[in-house]
TrEMBL record:
The chain crosses the membrane at residues 49-72, 99-121, 153-177, 189-207, 241-265. SUPFAM superfamilies: Aquaporin-like. This is Aquaporin-10 like protein. It is a multi-pass membrane protein. Gene3D superfamilies: Glycerol uptake facilitator protein. Its main location: membrane. Belongs to the MIP/aquaporin (TC 1.A.8) family. It is found in: Membrane. Keywords: Membrane, Signal, Transmembrane, Transmembrane helix, Transport. Aquaglyceroporin that may modulate the water content and osmolytes during anhydrobiosis.
Amino acid sequence: MNTLERFFFKLLLFFVHSPAKEACAEFFGTLVLVLLGDGIMATVTLGHLGAHGVIVSAIGWGVSVAIAVALAGTISGGHVNPAVTIALATMRKCPWKYVVHYLVAQYLGGFIAAAFVYIVYYDAINEFDNGQRQLPPHPNSTAQIFSTYPQDFVSIGSCFLDQVIGTAMLLIVICTAIDQRYKKVPSHYQPTIVGLGLMAIILAFGYNCGAPLNPARDLGPRIFTLLAGWGTETFSFRNHMWFWVPVLGPHVGALLGVLFYSFFIDLTFANYTMMSSEAEEDEKLVQSSEHEDQNISTEVCVEDPSLQINIGAN
């Protein structure tokens, strides 16, 4: 093996035995998720789908996350969401040494995916808004292709609560799918369960502010739109009171989701398992005690003639 081959071999070993491998999987999984999801939002917006767009976007994002989780799941766990990564790490379901690598990879994947969607739909976006980049509620707004924006009549407090509850539900679905201690869901079903769960959550909580539920899906593309012509209003929207909601809200909701699952499911099953084990042990002890008593009685009857029953005459 020459020097160059030895160098690449050591580089490959470092890559395999470091968090870089998992980070690359998270980057690629998040890129695929946002690329498909934002592409679907481009179709909904530029195609004037209107009310039908709610169904299309829910199904599209659900299928997209199922594909992304299936793609990265066997390598990194398929988090593709910073809120999921931090919540699982908090509950010791993911090593903390991976967290920073995962977050960087996820946000970068979201940013680059938005750039790809912009390039693919550049002509269509120009046709739609005549080159004037607009934000909601403008009728020719295209910013919602890449990031989420709330309805005019919905308060920031309601949007924050919306994100907390929606992401908590998402983490409950994820914990249910990956729980191998009690439910033992086959691994090849897990992406489908997460995708269907996300689909239901978007249908239930998508009206107020588009159900971002994923900081990398919202912040990465928002930074891209800031640089690509939509301007600083992407962050100053509603007097700078909106952009942090799709980032902080999902993190709070994700932590609550894993706590709820741990309290209502993990502890319940753990107590049930403990009680069942104790009952089995008690039953074994009772059976063992009865068996020992029977042996003792037999031995006494045999050894003490006075306890034997006489059959026949004197």
